[in-house]
Specification:
Blueprint: H1 3-17, E1 23-26, H2 43-53, E2 59-62
Parallel strand pairs: 1-2
């Protein structure tokens, strides 16, 4: 039973070590947090885009 938590931990490390070309997100229209017609696609989208930009990772959001 202890193998499952350890395997999850190693999988998480593998994901963190993998290079990321872009971050893709599927979202619903939830104004003012997210939305295709909102400025900068919403407050949450803007916050996430700024955080990823610090690591030079572009954000793509599909609504």
């Amino acid at each position: 039973m202890r193998a499952l938590p350890y395997s999850s931990w190693f999988f998480g490390l593998w994901l963190c070590a993998s290079p990321v070309n872009a971050f893709e997100l599927n979202s619903l229209e939830w104004p003012p947090y997210t939305g295709a017609a909102l400025p900068e696609q919403g407050q949450l989208s803007s916050l996430l885009r700024d955080a990823l930009a610090q690591q030079d990772i572009p954000l793509r959001i599909r609504f």
